[in-house]
Amino acid sequence: MSVLITPEALEAQLQTSQPPLLLDCRAFRQDSAEAAVTLPGSRRFDLERDMSAASGAGGRHPLPSQADFTATLCVSA
Q1: Which among 69, 25, 32, 22 is positioned nearest to 46, based on CA atoms?
Q2: Given a cut of 70, is residue 29 above it in pLDDT?
Q3: 16-19, Cβ contacts within 8 angstroms, sequence gap of 24 or more
Q4: How far, in whole angstroms, is CA 37 from its chain's centroid?
Q5: In sequence order, which residues have a C-beta less than 8 Å from that of residue 2 and are 6 or more positions away?
Q6: Residue 43 pLDDT class (50, 70, 90 cuts)
Q7: Residue at 11 is within a domain
Q8: Which of 38, 56, 64, 71 is buried deepest, with most CB atoms within 10 A?
Q9: Total of domains in the chain
Q10: Contact partners, residue 27, CB within 8 Å, separation at least 6
Q11: pTM for this one?
């Protein structure tokens, strides 16, 4: 399995003056134990609510439009 960044490299980046923006994107079930666990310092995004557009020609879970995703980022800031 390939990773985009190692935990060590991420930790180093988080200590800089301009740390990366972390998005914790999962299908959260409110009654699950994992719902209480998030990535430290991350913004939480629900795959169904925040990361998907309405079902249709783009499939069951198409990506939101750029404008909709930008609006979601601004609201969660």
Answers
A1: 25
A2: no
A3: none
A4: 13
A5: none
A6: confident
A7: no
A8: 64
A9: 1
A10: 46, 47, 48
A11: 0.60
Give pLDDT, residue 31.
67
Statement: residue 7 has pLDDT above 90: no
SS (H, E, C) 16-49: CCCCCCCEEEECCCCCCHHHHCCCCCCEEEECCC
* Tokens representing residue 5 in the block: 């960044």
Tokens of 51: 């990361």
Expressed as residue numbers, the domain containing 62 is 20-76
**Burial (CB count <10 Å: 0-12, 13-18, 19+), residue 32:** exposed
Instruction: Confirm whether 10 is domain-assigned.
Output: no
